[in-house]
Design a protein that fits this description.
It contains two helices and eight strands. By secondary structure, it is α/β, with parallel strands linked by helices. A four-stranded mixed sheet has the order 1-4-3-2, with helices on one face. A four-stranded mixed sheet has the order 5-8-7-6, covered by helices on one side. The longest helix has 14 residues, at 17-30. Helices cover 18% and strands 41% of the residues.
Length: 131
């Protein structure tokens, strides 16, 4: 049987260098995630950003704007959902779901707080905390 240790990274393709650099600023300067390496490959800029529980790998070579697909969003576990939403709002990013409390109707009920925004490369980002 195959043994998976966990998710190592999630890759995001930004459409061009400008969107790539904006994504670097979004994750590094606004959300405070450290860049662990940067490189260039085949004309594309690339970077790995440490989320504390895995890596976001960014590329500058998307051929078009993001389209809806099977991956719904990236969720970050955070201490304060409201502070994260305010930080990205202050930086001019679109908030798609204001912070709100949700009770996931599992057994037992799972009480959480969430908020969503659109990131610099067009990806949907969730800020998540247990209540």
């Amino acid at each position: 049987m195959v043994k998976i240790k966990g998710i190592h990274h999630i890759a995001i393709k930004a459409s061009g260098v400008e969107k790539f650099e904006e994504a670097i600023r979004f994750y590094n300067e606004i959300l405070g995630l450290p860049i662990v390496r940067r490189w260039e490959k085949g004309g594309a800029l690339c970077a790995m950003i440490d989320t504390g529980a895995g890596i976001l790998e960014l590329f500058s070579n998307a051929e078009c704007e993001p389209q809806p697909g099977p991956l719904r969003h990236i969720a970050f576990e955070v201490e304060n959902v409201d502070e994260c939403i305010e930080a990205v709002r202050a930086a001019g990013y679109e908030i798609t779901i204001e912070p709100k409390d949700v009770d996931i109707p599992s057994n037992p009920v799972y009480p959480i707080r969430v908020g969503f925004c659109i990131g610099a490369a067009g990806e949907e980002v969730e800020f998540f905390s247990e209540r």
